[in-house]
Amino acid sequence: MHTLARRNISNTPHKNISLLTAVLPSIPLEDSTIDVVISNCVLNLLPDEHKPQVWREIYRVLKVGGKVIVSDVLARKELSEEMKLNAALLVGCVAGAALVEDVEKWMREARLEGECPDFYLGLFSWSNCVK
Ligand SMILES: C[S@@+](CC[C@H](N)C(=O)[O-])C[C@H]1O[C@@H](n2cnc3c(N)ncnc32)[C@H](O)[C@@H]1O
After folding, report:
1. For the segment 24-35, what is each residue's pLDDT rounded down to a tens digit?
2. Does ligand 1 come within 6 angstroms of the Cβ of 41?
3. Which of 3, 8, 31, 94 has the fewest other C-beta atoms within 10 Å?
C-alpha cells in the first residue's frame, strides 16, 4: 500500500506529504495537531467494540476548528447475524456497517459537532463535522 502511495506522491509537485501506518482505532499522532481527518470506507471494518473509540481518537488529534470528512457505509436498521458473519459482505464494507444512530451517538459522545450525515449514492458522508 505504501509503495503505491509513494508512487502517487512522487507524481505530485507536493513535498510536504508523509506516510504513517496505524492500526485503528489508535491514531499515533499528538493531540490537537490535525486540520482535517479524511477517511473513506475504513471505519465499517473495525470491530464493533472499537468503533466508538475511533471517534474519540479523531476528536483527540484534531485541532480546535479541525474538520472531519468521512464517507462510509452505515445501516438504517440492524443487520441480521447471518449478514454480519458473511465474509463477502464484510470485505464489501456491508457486514460491519454501524447503525446511523449509533454513529451519531459516538460522534456526540466524542464531542464532535456537526449535522446529520448526508446520504449520497449509497454512502453516508460527513463534511460539516468539526471539533
Ligand atoms: C475498502 S478499503 C478503503 C481504502 C481507501 N480508504 C480507499 O478509499 O480506497 C479499506 C481499508 O481499510 C484498511 N483497514 C481495515 N481495518 C483497519 C484498521 N483496524 N486500521 C487501519 N486500517 C484498516 C484496510 O487495510 C483497507 O486498506
Report:
1. 999 999 999 999
2. yes
3. 3
* 18 in any annotated domain: no
| Contact criterion met (CB below 8 Å) for 34 and 12 | no
Domain that holds residue 123: 29-130
Domain assignment present for 1: no
Residue type, 87: A
Asked whether 96 and 79 are in contact (CB, 8 A), the reply is no
Q: Is residue 45 within 6 Å of ligand 1 at its C-beta?
A: yes
Assigned domain for 99 exists: yes
109: CATH: 3.40.50.150
Beta-bridge mates of residue 92: none
The rounded distance, in Å, linking the Cα atoms of 52 and 76 is 18
Is residue 67 over pLDDT 90?
no
C-alpha 51 to ligand 1 mean position (Å) = 14
Per-residue model confidence as pLDDT tens digits over 72-129? 888 888 999 999 999 999 999 999 999 988 988 998 899 988 765 665 545 666 666 7
Asked whether 45 and 84 are in contact (CB, 8 A), the reply is no
Distance 124 CA to ligand 1 centre (A): 17
